[in-house]
Backbone:
């Protein structure tokens, strides 16, 4: 299913557009996409509560052509992180082509960075929260190298950007602040009651 990026409920990022400035159009699209990806992360948290609540969307121009959330624990397949799920979803798009941009709520792990590198036509990867945001909360292992540093070192074939949106960052951190990871089993637990209470402030 194709879905327009800007909807009546998601107009705010469009305000980032400065007439004729292609960079501002790109910023607006990626902020709108992060908005959708954040909704997918919340869907994961509230409907399953098993995986890290990370959402991702695949874009072709101003259309969303793929959407997904991390499902590796739910489906028992370690590769099924949000980025991969969103690209699998594009396979059902009638055009069938891989989209140009993937936008995810959390800095992609190295496994996903390498998977994304195998996708023809993927030129850009944008994310919301950094891995350090999740690592400082004990949710993922700390990595010494950021995706920006690794992209340079191993020459990842796409551009990497972090979406600069204070509101979406605050929502993203609120999600992380209401989940826990069992260090023994690796299982994620979502406190849905406290999460919905915290989200009521937005
Ligand atoms: Zn990953």
Residues:
């Amino acid at each position: 299913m194709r879905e327009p990026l800007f909807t009546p409920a998601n107009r705010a990022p469009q305000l980032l557009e400065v007439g004729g400035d292609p960079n501002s159009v790109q910023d607006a699209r990626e902020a709108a996409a992060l908005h959708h990806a954040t909704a997918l992360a919340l869907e994961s948290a509230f409907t399953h509560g098993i995986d890290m609540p990370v959402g991702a969307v695949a874009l072709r121009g101003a259309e969303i052509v793929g959407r997904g959330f991390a499902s590796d624990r739910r489906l028992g397949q370690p590769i099924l992180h949000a980025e991969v799920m969103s690209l699998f979803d594009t396979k059902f798009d009638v055009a069938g082509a891989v989209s140009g941009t993937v936008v995810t709520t959390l800095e992609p792990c190295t496994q996903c960075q390498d998977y994304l590198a195998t996708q023809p036509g993927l030129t850009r990867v944008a994310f919301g929260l950094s891995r350090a945001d999740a690592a400082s909360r004990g949710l993922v292992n700390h990595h010494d190298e950021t995706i920006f540093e690794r992209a340079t070192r191993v020459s990842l074939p796409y551009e990497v950007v972090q979406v600069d949106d204070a509101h979406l960052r605050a929502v993203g951190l609120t999600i992380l602040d209401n989940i826990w990871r069992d260090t023994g089993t690796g299982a994620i637990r979502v406190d849905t009651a406290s999460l919905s209470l915290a989200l009521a402030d937005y």
